Amino acid sequence: MTEMVYGTVPVYAGDPILPRWWRTIDKWTMGCVLMLFGIGLLLGLASSPPLASKNGLEPFHYVSRQAVFGGLAMIAMLLTSMMTPQLVRRLAILGFLVAFVALMGLPFFGTDFGKGAVRWYSLGFASLQPSEFLKPGFVVMAAWLMAAALEIGGPPGRLYSFILTIVICTFLALQPDFGQAALVLFSWGVMYFVAGAPMLLLAGVCAGVVAVGWFAYANSEHFARRIDGFLSPDLDPTTQLGYATNAIREGGFFGVGVGEGQVKWSLPDAHTDFIIAVAAEEYGLICVLVIIGLYSVIVVRSLLRLLKERDPFIRFAGTGLACAFGVQAMINMGVAVRLLPAKGMTLPFVSYGGSSIIAGGIAMGMLLAFTRTRPQGEIGDILMRRGR
Q1: Three-state secondary-structure class, residue 121
Q2: Does the pTM of the predicted model rise above 0.85?
């Protein structure tokens, strides 16, 4: 019984919340998130003044807003990371239901801000993108259903989670927002794999994704235009991808110098979807490698800590959150170097965007709560005892 309750960090009854939180939290992951936010503000100082000037605003209007949004995100991350997994699950499911209702209302009350996709609610002083808040709630909801399926006499949670995934992806595709739909489907696939899904079933899901992609290409002008632009051997230098590719090439290893970059004057989304191009041009490959390293540390450390977790729900939800976070960063940077079709997806904690960074703070707070050290035996020890 002793090894069942043994943990690397002792937790005492009646221990104050803050000291216990500080001893059990993954400080490396939290530090990397804070560094990414700081880098985002630094890059915002370089990328946002041109857009502010075009819109007749103060030079650092967008940086100031990013600092406010980021401050709220960091507060949300810290508060969420102090919660128990049970409280996180309850609040996440409630948040998921609210975000899902908001997602369904987009065709009637949403706006596209001239970008061709109805993804936002205009609040006057700001905009709200429900899909950003939907993602972390969906991961927790799907993990809860999958974990319930493992209980004796439990519901068919895996089937329910799959149906829920298809419904959400359908609503996202109708916006259209194929990037977020792909991220939701990927998150579900990773959790289902960890939950012990048959490889044949996962292969069938992949085949279904290919079929749906072919159908979307044949019936969606928005989707077809992006795929054609990606597959075209000739890159128009006057497009966003053309400007971004040229900026990355010009930056070299050490960049052209702080404030000397030119891509921010040409790219309308230099402070959001293509902020990595600004980083590459002004600070060079070294800065990009630092950013990639920070994302890698967050994902790898989180997954390593989750390997020691005995609770299936925490393992599934934590894995889904960590992998979705890493893949979103990979997609954003992959688009900038033309390894992937344009997706319209932000770089977590670095790109400008209120909904993106606040939802990201909540998601990271959930991940930190799930990866906190708890008094429990390692799952490998449990399996070894069962095999005896």
Answers
A1: strand
A2: yes
Angle, CA 52 vertex, CA 47 and CA 58 arms, to 5°: 115
142: in domain: yes
Neighbours of 205 (CB within 10 A): 16
Residue 103: HSE in the Cβ half-sphere, 13 Å Cα cutoff: 27
- Is 55's pLDDT higher than 70? yes
- Domain-embedded: residue 99: yes
The string of pLDDT tens digits covering residues 343-367 is 778 899 999 988 999 999 999 999 9
Let me know if residue 139 belongs to a domain.
yes
DSSP secondary structure code for residue 229 in this structure: H
In degrees and rounded to multiples of 5, residue 344 shows phi and psi of 70, 40
Alpha helix stretches (DSSP H) within the chain: 2-5, 17-24, 27-47, 49-54, 61-81, 85-109, 130-149, 157-173, 178-194, 199-219, 221-231, 240-251, 275-306, 312-336, 354-370, 379-387
Q: How many domains, in total, are found in the chain?
A: 1
Residue 166 sits in which domain range? 26-371
Assess if residue 378 is contained within a domain: no
Q: Are 277 and 263 in contact (CB under 8 A)?
A: yes
| Complete DSSP assignment for 317-384 | HHHHHHHHHHHHHHHHHHHHTTSS-------TTTS--HHHHHHHHHHHHHHHHHTS--S---HHHHHH
Q: Pick from 300, 319, 292, 328: which is nearest to 183 by CA?
A: 328
